[in-house]
Amino acid sequence: MSLPQSKTELRKTLRKTRREHVAAQSDAIRALLFHRPPAPLLAKIGHDAVIGLYSAAASEAPAGGYAQFFQEAGHTIALPAFTAANAPMTFREHTDPFGSGDLEMGPFDIAQPGADAREILPDVLFVPLVGFTASGERLGQGGGHYDRWLTEHPGRMAIGLAWDAQLCDTLPTEPHDIVLDAVVTPTRMYGIS
Ligand SMILES: Nc1nc2c(c(=O)[nH]1)N(C=O)[C@@H](CNc1ccc(C(=O)N[C@@H](CCC(=O)O)C(=O)O)cc1)CN2
Ligand SMILES: Nc1ncnc2c1ncn2[C@@H]1O[C@H](COP(=O)(O)OP(=O)(O)OP(=O)(O)O)[C@@H](O)[C@H]1O
Question: Which GO terms describe its molecular function (predicted)?
Answer without folding.
Answer: 5-formyltetrahydrofolate cyclo-ligase activity
